[in-house]
């Protein structure tokens, strides 16, 4: 069965086309991305701007067409923090349904956390024991812990890299005092979730998922993506601290020149690194394993578990 997964995130819209069957390993066939930065295309009232909504409609329609021509039997389309938190979320969703012919399913923060944890569990298997997963997106930070496929504890906090960049950093590069203030604020925000997560027990495996953690690991010496999914990649707390001292003195343009850093992510890199550092510090984590699977794979796996039927759900517009 060929599936399309359309992910409308805070930074990008991503279409992943996979061949999948129940009990098998989802095989990626193609990947298409567009940078929309919806989290930044919001006005003072927290509404997605007309320009942002226009680009979302256009991109969604284009990617739905790609899914059809790629032979997808179904398109699973979902949106996360940027659309979820927008004051005009329902109006934007109606435009996408009406003009692009696609119904976006808005995931809650807890849904994001639990589906990402499912993907991590399937990647590492039961022998991994209790897993602690950290996932940094553009709008939110997800923290999960558990020994099964569904985590015992799941947090979604509004501590995404894009959100914090927009709210905290006005200078480029950011000033030292501002970085210090953000560190203190993050420590306060993470204190209670970290206390509850730590009280649940000791993790046997600590994991980082999604683009921010992959980029941070690459900048601290992990293998590039060209080495393949199954190469073990790690991020250490000490390596992360050294990296922050380096990148926090660089401009956005200079960070975009670093190997493994995309131009659309370079602006958010410092804030993402600070969230990663604060999360690891709060939870007492010295080393993270970097998992190549995250939310999209979790959605695919849940779909395969529950329903292998269905027909193409993309309307013609």
CATH class of the largest domain: Alpha Beta
CATH architecture of the largest domain: 2-Layer Sandwich
Largest sheet: 6 strands, mixed
Alpha carbon gyration radius: 19 Å
Label the structural class.
Answer: alpha/beta
Rounded to the nearest angstrom, the distance between the terminal CA atoms is 24 Å
CATH fold node name of the largest domain:
Nucleotidyltransferase, domain 5
Q: Give the CATH superfamily of the largest domain.
A: Exopolyphosphatase. Domain 2
Helical content band: 40-55%
Shape: globular
**Spatial arrangement of strands, main beta sheet:** 8-7-6-9-11-10
Number of strands: 11
As residue ranges, the low-confidence spans are: 309-317
Assembly type of the chains comes to single chain
Overview of the molecule:
With 317 residues, this protein is an alpha/beta fold. It contains eleven helices and eleven strands. The protein has two domains: 2-106, ATPase, nucleotide binding domain (Nucleotidyltransferase, domain 5, 2-Layer Sandwich), CATH 3.30.420.40; 124-295, Nucleotidyltransferase, domain 5, CATH 3.30.420. Helix content is 43%, strand content 20%. The strands form two sheets. Strands 8-7-6-9-11-10 form a six-stranded mixed sheet, with helices on both faces. It is globular. Mean pLDDT is 93; it is low at 309-317.
Descriptive keywords:
317 residues, alpha/beta, Nucleotidyltransferase, domain 5, 5-stranded mixed beta sheet, 11 strands, Ppx_GppA_N, exopolyphosphatase activity, ATPase_NBD, GppA/Ppx_hydrolase
């Amino acid at each position: 069965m060929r599936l399309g997964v359309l992910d409308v995130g805070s930074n990008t819209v991503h279409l992943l086309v996979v061949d999948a069957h129940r009990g098998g390993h989802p095989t990626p066939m193609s990947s298409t991305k567009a940078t929309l930065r919806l989290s930044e295309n919001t006005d003072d009232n927290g509404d997605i701007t007309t320009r942002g909504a226009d680009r979302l409609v256009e991109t969604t329609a284009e990617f739905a067409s790609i899914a059809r021509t790629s032979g997808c039997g179904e398109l699973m389309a979902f949106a996360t923090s940027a659309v979820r938190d927008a004051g005009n979320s329902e109006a934007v969703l109606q435009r996408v349904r009406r003009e692009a012919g696609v119904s976006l399913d808005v995931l809650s923060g807890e849904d994001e956390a639990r589906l990402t944890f499912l993907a991590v569990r399937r990647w590492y298997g039961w022998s991994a024991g209790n897993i602690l997963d950290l996932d940094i997106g553009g709008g939110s930070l997800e923290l999960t812990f558990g020994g099964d496929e569904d985590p015992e504890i799941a947090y979604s906090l509004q501590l995404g890299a894009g959100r914090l960049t927009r709210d905290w950093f006005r200078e480029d590069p950011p000033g030292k005092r501002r970085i210090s203030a953000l560190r203190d604020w993050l420590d306060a925000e993470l204190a209670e979730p970290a206390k509850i997560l730590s009280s649940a027990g000791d993790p046997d495996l600590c994991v980082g998922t999604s683009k921010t953690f992959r980029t941070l690991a690459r900048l601290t010496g992990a293998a590039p993506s060209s080495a393949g999914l199954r190469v073990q990649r790690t991020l250490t707390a000490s390596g992360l601290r050294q990296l922050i001292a380096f990148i926090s003195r660089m401009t956005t343009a200079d960070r975009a020149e670093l190997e493994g850093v995309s131009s659309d992510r370079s602006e958010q890199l410092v804030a993402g690194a600070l969230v990663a550092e604060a999360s690891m510090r709060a939870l007492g984590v010295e080393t993270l394993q970097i998992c190549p699977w995250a939310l999209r794979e979790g959605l695919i796996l849940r779909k395969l578990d529950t329903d292998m039927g269905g027909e193409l759900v993309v309307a013609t517009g």
